[in-house]
Design a protein that fits this description.
The protein is of the alpha/beta class and 255 residues long. Helices cover 40% and strands 20% of the residues. The mean pLDDT is 93.
């Protein structure tokens, strides 16, 4: 697993689903919005944390800028979005121009592990930490980048059963994950803020298995098929009850 591999995954996904997009869109999974009460995770975050116009925010793994632009537009604060995908950053920058938010939002191709210390009041990482090349190093870098009293918010899939099944191995291989996030590895010092597992929408295992068979054929002609297959293996893990979808956070001491 390398940074170049991560760039390739997200550039291919962008080419597949975002090249013709007319507006910013979330890149994280869709939830049952009726049961959840929000049509997007970032809106829940905005309602449950104290952002203000003086806040400095990092959107770590910003995709095409949906969350970054929403925060800036809603709270009128300074936001920096980072991704390893140059294609996503180019599109995010274009969206910021179209929304006239260039004075509040900047986008850069940057690794999580190369952040200036004590720079942000909030760091949000939505389904992006999973692609860390070294989880311990990444979490340390993100915490160091917080100002005193700053908050790191992570939204991601967390493995609860560390007995590696074929589904787990296939999911990890298809998405080229160096490590799998485990709740036991981060709780504490992080705290569980919200369990989103019940809002995750999945297909039945019958449909998932059929789709995997289809993608096994399509992967020969479509470079995105393997990534999509990894998403189906993730659905299987939710169906099997060994994967959870959590919002966790860490508040840096005032020192």
């Amino acid at each position: 697993m390398t940074e170049a591999a991560i760039t390739s995954i997200y550039n291919r996904l962008f080419k597949w689903e975002g090249k013709s997009a007319k507006a910013p869109y979330p890149i994280h999974k869709k939830l049952n919005t009726v049961a959840f009460g929000y049509d997007d995770i970032y809106k829940w975050i905005l309602d449950n944390y104290q952002f203000n116009a003086d806040s400095k925010v990092l959107d770590a793994g910003c995709g095409v800028g949906y969350g970054s632009l929403l925060i800036a537009e809603t709270k009128h604060c300074q936001v920096k979005g980072i991704s390893l995908s140059d294609a996503e950053i180019l599109q995010a920058t274009q969206f910021s121009k179209e929304k006239n938010l260039e004075h509040l939002v900047t986008f850069n191709v940057t690794s999580y592990d190369k952040l200036e210390p004590k720079s942000f009041d909030f760091i949000i990482a939505t389904e992006s930490v999973k692609h860390s090349l070294n989880l311990e190093k990444t979490l340390k870098s993100l915490r160091n980048a917080l100002k005193p009293n700053g908050t790191l918010i992570i939204v991601d899939d967390f493995l609860t059963n560390e007995t590696y099944s074929n589904s787990i191995k296939s999911y990890q291989k298809d998405w080229q994950l160096a490590e799998l996030l485990s709740a036991s590895d981060v709780l504490p010092p992080f705290r569980l803020k919200k369990d989103l597992t019940d809002f995750v929408q999945t297909k039945s295992n019958l449909k998932v298995n059929f789709s995997i068979i289809l993608l096994n054929v399509l992967k020969q002609i479509n470079s995105v098929a393997t990534i999509m297959r990894g998403g189906l293996y993730l659905e299987k893990l939710f169906n099997e009850g060994v994967m959870k979808y959590y919002i966790i956070d860490f508040k840096k001491p005032n020192q």
